[in-house]
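pls read this protein:
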Amino acid sequence: MPENHSDLPPMAPPPTLPRQRLRYTRILDVAAGYARKGLDSVILSEVAAQADVPLGTLYRYFPSPTQLVLALYRKQLAELHAPEEARAAASARTRAGTRARIPAGDSPAGPRPADHPAAAGPIGPARTHALVAVAMEIFHMRLMQPAVEQCLSKAVYVKGSDTTRLLREIDSLAEQAVTAVSGSAGTSRVLLLTVTGLVQSVRSRRLSLFEAEEDLKQACALLSGPRGGA
């Protein structure tokens, strides 16, 4: 039987003070590693210990694993909604650990016409880094999607039906986000198919998470070059 929304303990609103917001964000960042393995792997005491926050603090914001996973998913979804500048700032930690190797000659040869679909976006290494950032967000969101589906099967969130729209929204939003960075709908489709294949490989244990991330960075470098990104 699904839980009713009113059966779940209330959550405190996100903090506003800088120090508290850092702890709040750290909790979500740590939780992402557990959520990739499924909802049952999200053990609040372990998340609190790894995030170096008191367990009581974590419970105040996220009284249950269901609420923690859905809050994480909403954060990731909001970052895809955000403009490129805001998304780049939100993904700084991710980019620091996922810098792609740029093959020589990958910068565009000469300026693009003003009406070119990629003209408004970043170019060269900047485009590759931006593409890696958004692709990694989508990749990790899709890895934790089974945990989100488990959350939705455990709880009926009636108000605004917002959580039931999360899974429906991700595909179209992901394509929009990748297209905005790459400047090409074709590049977006190819990269999203790559993400899907890598997610399946990680879930079936044909690839480790590290190997999949490295393959995704290489795909971004190839697709953002003069042939892939033009």
Summary: Residues 98 and 217 are 7 Å apart (CA to CA). Residues 65-103+118-223 form one domain. The chain is about 65% helix and 0% strand.
